[in-house]
Design a protein that fits this description.
With 301 residues, the protein is α/β, with parallel strands linked by helices. Among the domains are: 79-90 and 161-295, 3-Layer(aba) Sandwich (Rossmann fold); 95-157, DNA polymerase, domain 1, CATH 1.10.150.450. Helix content is 30%, strand content 8%. The protein contains 9 helices and 6 strands. Strands 3-2-1-4-5-6 form a 6-stranded parallel beta sheet, covered by helices on one side. Helix 1 packs across helix 2 (115-129) and helix 2 (115-129) packs across helix 3 (132-140). The protein is globular, with a radius of gyration of 19 Å. The two termini are 37 Å apart.
């Protein structure tokens, strides 16, 4: 087992000058700060699926298969990390649009803002921190788990997402003897599990690393600490043994800088970035067979 990795501070710098930050013009609401205890989550997925995150209130890793090691895997091997939202399902599903609407409504209601100001502040926090919720927690002492219940958990995913035979066929083509398949998302555990269950691919992954809304401070991609935590939980020691696909330019760019092997998913119909975020740039997940052929049973289908 590798030595415990040090906790790192994020250095993601906002493109918005601090002197002109819109959030600084807002009064700090008189909301008391309290310690948030993360609830226990019963394994709701296929027993094969296991998630080894250490919850904020306990140092004991939670696993869904007692026969595996605490790091979530039985032996060290390369890990193929998958982002979830707008990656395992197409952007055309409009999950992001539904979520943005709920976030803007939350900002407007809980911060007593006009709709225009709510949208503006939402965008600023997303740009600055990678997650709107982090700005809310930092500047307004919002309960992140209560926020999650009003936003992510309120999404009507059952009416939006559906089984994708091509996706499952692709994931089943991954040779599990050659790599570990792991989910890496900035969403909370509830949302992550709902999505993969609705897509009917929850049984194909070995584990999950997510943004723990019950922990302070919040840590998410593209912070290096998030990638290091994913490595520890997935049981991989070397940066070069990490393979990753994500639709976020910044997440892919940073993962590449950290030494991961990355494929940036730029969905068909979206503009291609002038400068690639990573070595590999793909239009569809099936192109992973070309980007990382060593992990697939069939090279081209």
């Amino acid at each position: 087992m590798p030595a415990r990795l040090p906790r790192l501070l994020r250095t993601f710098r906002s493109p918005i000058p601090s002197s002109r930050s819109y959030s600084q013009q807002l009064p700090r609401p008189l909301i008391s700060t309290r310690i948030i205890e993360q609830p226990n989550f019963a394994p709701v997925l296929n027993p094969v699926f296991r998630h080894s995150l250490r919850h904020s209130h306990t140092s004991r890793p939670v696993v869904m298969d007692p026969s595996i090691q605490p790091n979530g895997v039985s032996a060290p091997k390369p890990v193929l990390f998958f982002d979830i939202d707008n990656c395992l399902y197409p952007r055309s599903s409009r999950v992001q649009d539904h979520m943005a609407q709920l976030i803007d409504e939350y900002f407007a209601k809980h911060l007593s803002l006009s709709w225009e100001d709510a949208v503006k502040l939402h965008k600023e926090y997303y740009t600055n921190y990678g997650l709107a919720i982090e700005g809310l927690v930092r500047h307004h002492q919002i309960d992140p788990l209560e926020y999650n219940s009003k936003v992510d958990d309120a999404l009507p995913l059952e009416h939006i997402l559906q089984y994708n035979h091509e996706l499952r066929e692709l994931l089943e083509d991954v040779d599990k003897s050659k790599c570990t398949m792991w989910l890496l998302t900035n969403a909370y555990v509830n949302h992550a599990k709902r999505v993969v269950k609705l897509l009917r691919i929850d049984d194909l992954f070995d584990g999950l690393t997510f943004c723990d809304y019950g922990a302070q401070p919040l840590v998410c991609k593209p912070a290096k600490e998030m990638y290091l935590r994913a490595m520890k939980e997935a049981g991989v020691e070397k940066m070069e043994d990490c393979y990753f696909v994500d639709d976020s330019y910044l997440n892919c760019q940073k993962a590449t800088e950290y030494g991961w092997n990355v494929a940036h998913l730029v969905e068909e119909g979206l503009p291609v970035p002038r400068t690639q975020a990573s070595k590999h740039q793909i239009r569809h997940l099936r192109e992973l067979r070309e980007a990382f052929p060593q992990f697939f049973k069939s090279k081209n289908v």
